[in-house]
Amino acid sequence: MKLSKGRQVETGARMIFAWSVKPNMAWRGTWRPQGSPLRQNMLHGAIGERSGDPCGRQVNLEEGVAVLVALGLDLLGEPPAAWHPVVLYGKLIRRLEQTAPQGPIPQLLYGIVMLMLAAPAALLPAAIVHQLAKRVQAGAMQRGCSQDEGVPHDKSGGYGGVILYALIEGIGLKPCFALRMLAEAGRSVRLALERGDLPAARNALQSLVSRDRSELTAELAGAAAIESLAENLSDSVVAPLLYYALLGLPGAAAYRLFNTFDSMIGYHGQYEYLGKAAAWLDDVLNVLPARLTALLIIALAPLFGGNRFKAWQIWRRDAHKTASPNAGHPMAAAAGALGLQLEKVGYYTLGDNERALTAYSIRQAEQMVWRISVVVVFLAAFFKSLRRAEDG
Q1: pLDDT tens, position by position, 13-69
Q2: pTM, whole model, 2 decimals?
Q3: Could you say which DSSP state residue 237 is in?
Q4: Beta bridge partners of 344
Q5: Which residues lie below 8 Å from residue 285, measured CB to CB, with a gap of 6+?
Q6: Are residues 48 and 96 in the same domain?
Q7: Residue 247 domain-assigned?
Q8: If you write DSSP's letter for every residue of 72-84 in order, what string do you get?
Q9: Radius of gyration over alpha carbons of the chain, in Å?
Q10: Do residue 44 and residue 122 come from a single domain?
């Protein structure tokens, strides 16, 4: 389940939905004959040794803090639509689409060209932001270190560098995922169902699903909301943070661009051939995140009142029932964890009908999104903090 196809540009910032870390302060001081060995060890080792860092830090504390900054910004809300990167991606895709040729083969080839032409729009700004963050940090760190041995004489320079890097990098990372918006979209459906206002619940679903909502019952509307919360937990939170952890800011931005391509043109019908490359690329990029999300739902099921064993069982049994090779994984795991049957009439049925699906079921799915996302943020921050910075 993705955001309504073709709806992303028009919905503005709604098109994108994706703490503290203990640094490994290893004592790696160099023993010197002059001065106190303990003092030398503390000066060099407590901060570590890293090539290219004026103060020689071993761990990348700033990398982890940047993830936390992005989370904090996400909790404040989405950037204005006028300069939201994902909105700009959508406008670029629409412009490229206008020059698409006719005919199956030309459209198939042009779909590949579209991806290639658009890629720099995500990669270059992300790389520039990352390099800016590194340069600002290096300047702050240099001012805080003496020139003779690289020994810090002013801790504010080191801490200031970490803070400046994290702020710049975090601002660049924030648009790549949207936790709060995803949870609020599910909450809107839940509140409407709690009021008994089915038309309002159907209307609230427009930011979550592309299916016809006019005939949905309250139970089917609730199922659609839970399915989308589970799938977008992968697409909008786990996947971008995973690619940020593995490939840095350009990786997260590229994922978001290609996922936006798929949401806008990666489906059958009008875009059967034009969107085929985008759909295939999105499927490839989400192979790992979708399965990782399913495993997180299973492992962390008790955090939102779910059943870990049942989640595993239903995931193994039903994950393949959706047309998408990836969407069924988090949805089936969520259905099993919550003991629900999630159905898209005429397409698939996931899980067992052990419990009636009510507004409270959506509340549990919201808790699933929030709590698993926080764990993922912690994991991404921890991983980035321990990983040595790339040279350059």
Answers
A1: 444 433 333 333 333 333 333 444 433 333 333 333 343 454 555 567 888 999 999
A2: 0.83
A3: I
A4: 348
A5: 239, 243, 255, 258, 259
A6: yes
A7: no
A8: HHHHH-PPPGGG-
A9: 23
A10: yes
